[in-house]
Design brief:
The protein is of the alpha/beta class and 381 residues long. It is 18% helix and 35% strand. It has 7 helices and 19 strands. The strands form 4 sheets. Strands 1-2-4-3-7-8-9-12-11-10 form a 10-stranded mixed β-sheet, sandwiched between helices. Strands 15, 16, 17, 18 and 19 form a 5-stranded antiparallel β-sheet that branches. It has a two-stranded antiparallel sheet with strand order 5-6. It starts with 21 loop residues before the first strand and ends with a strand.
């Protein structure tokens, strides 16, 4: 269950991006057990850095997750810290996370909370920008943490994970938690349509039910359903992107359905069969996380805005024209409370907005291109 391949350690070299970027081994004792983790610190380490916890899958470990997810490269480019914790071993001697698994007593929820506190104490981490993601069993644990540690985790992402019935039936977060799910429809390990009985892992909830749970909890509504470009035709899979927005505190829920995709991390540098290469999961995850703090959706001025599209005239008078150097796949406009007030498919390099579409005020324009979401302010007189 939740198997990932055993990597040959000799095949990898220590990861280095610059003379100052570091991947360091650390540990501390928790409830009488020494717990290990790896920390990636980017070259541009500075005050109040965002933190991402990246959890491995069943049978795997932190070392493998470093290379499998390749999130360090994204952290180096976007200036955030990543911590890769190690789980413990279950009754069968296999590494795991105790996401409400039958017969297991290890307090992984408490350990991850302690790890967050330790990282904040020992590194310059912004406590309002702590995020968690995970592969498979690590995805289960991310959902469990969203349910129980919502006061500490700003947003979560799950790759090939889901919620088991014990988590699902008892989940009551203190706040709206932004959630991202990436899952293949041909996943034989954590089936897309769920599994009613899976032994110690209990029943696995269908992915669409899990998405609906968070959409309802966060009070989101469907904004768009988009078929992404089939960039890699050789991977025998495609991607459908579902986006639910306008939730409490600007929260959203997103789901990348990997059509015919398997139990893999999309875009991974490890060439496993059934891996989709139309998206890069680690980049998608960070693009989702960076929008949020514990207080909700960030103001547009707080984004790392990519100035690759123009809005003219701005302020808008009778109309405004949006032009981009990259093809705009879709366009969304939000008020400053994070509520979506307009959306449209574009599939062009230019789009004209009429004044009658919007009332006077300040808005956030989101242009989704093939590779990223980019943002700018729009003033309407």
């Amino acid at each position: 269950m939740f198997m990932k391949p055993v990597f040959l350690v000799a095949a990898f070299l220590f990861i280095t991006f610059s003379s100052t970027a570091q991947l360091v081994d650390e540990n501390f004792e928790f409830e009488g057990v020494v717990r290990n983790h790896k920390v990636f610190v980017p070259a541009n380490y500075s005050d109040n850095m965002p933190l991402v916890l990246n959890l491995h899958g069943y049978t795997s470990n932190a070392f493998q997750q470093v290379f499998y997810s390749n999130m360090n490269a994204v952290a180096e480019q976007n200036d955030f810290v990543v911590v890769f914790p190690d789980g413990t071993t279950d009754q069968n001697g296999i590494t795991f996370w105790n996401s409400e698994i039958l017969g297991e007593s290890v307090n992984d929820l408490g350990y991850l909370e302690a790890l967050i506190d330790s990282m904040i104490e020992n590194y310059s981490i912004d406590p309002n920008r702590v995020y968690m993601c995970g592969m498979s069993n690590g995805g289960f644990m991310s959902y469990y943490s969203a349910c129980e540690l919502s006061s500490k985790i700003a947003a979560i992402a799950s790759v090939t994970g889901t919620m088991n019935n014990a988590i699902y039936d008892n989940c009551n977060p203190e706040r709206a938690v932004p959630v991202l799910e990436i899952h293949g429809t041909s996943d034989a390990t954590v089936p897309y349509n769920g599994a009613s009985s899976t032994g110690s892992f209990q029943s696995m909830m269908p992915i669409e039910e899990v998405v609906d749970f968070w959409v309802n909890h966060n009070n989101c509504t469907l904004e768009s359903e988009q078929e992404l470009e089939d960039i890699s035709t050789s991977d025998m899979s495609t991607v459908t992107h579902f986006k639910y927005t306008g939730g409490d505190n600007g929260s959203s829920v997103e789901h990348y359905r990997i059509n015919d995709g398997g139990h893999t991390w999309p875009g991974s540098i490890i060439p496993l069969p059934s891996t989709n290469h139309d998206i890069i999961a680690s980049e998608v995850i960070w693009d989702f996380f960076k929008q949020y703090t514990l207080d909700g959706l960030l103001e547009v001025d707080e984004f790392s805005i990519v100035k690759s599209f123009d809005i003219m005239p701005n302020p808008m008078l009778n109309y405004t024209r949006i032009k981009s150097a990259n093809k705009i796949e879709s366009l969304g406009i939000y008020d400053l409370q994070g509520k979506r007030v307009f959306s449209s498919s574009v599939n062009a390099y230019e789009y004209t907005l009429d004044r009658e579409m919007l009332s006077s005020g300040v808005y956030i324009v989101e242009a989704e291109t093939e590779t990223q979401s980019i943002y700018q302010k729009l003033f309407v007189q």
